[in-house]
Amino acid sequence: xxxxxxxxxxxxxxxxxxxxxxxxxxxxxxxxxxxxxxxxxxxxxxxxxxxxxxxxxxxxxxxxxxxxxxxxxxxxxxxxxxxxxxxxxxxxxxxx
Length: 96
Fold this sequence. Notes:
With 96 residues, this protein is mainly alpha-helical. It folds into 2 domains: 1-30, no CATH class; 32-96, no CATH class. Helices cover 39% and strands 6% of the residues. The protein is built from 4 helices and 2 strands; from the N terminus they run ααβαβα. It has helices spanning 2-17, 20-25, 56-64, 90-95; strands at residues 34-36, 69-71. The chain has a two-stranded parallel ribbon with strand order 1-2. The longest helix is centred in the N-terminal third of the chain and has 16 residues, at 2-17. The mean pLDDT is 77.
C-alpha cells in the first residue's frame, strides 16, 4: 500500500515538475457534474446485489439536478468465479 501511494505521489510530482499540469487542466472532459452511487454494486457476489435499490425515476431525478455522469463502483473480484480466469458471473450482465 505504501508503495502505491509513493508511486502515485511520484507521478503527481513529475506532472507538476514537467509543466504538464497546465496542459491537463485545459483538457475538455465529456462530463461536468456527477454523483457516486457507492455500495450499490459493491456486494459479496452478484446474487447479493440489490438491483432494485434505484429505479429509472431515481436516475431521471439525478439527471434533473444537472448530473451528466453517474459513477457505479463495483467490486469486480466478487462478481467473478475467481482464479485463474476471473470469468464474470453472467447474472451480473443480465441484471444490469
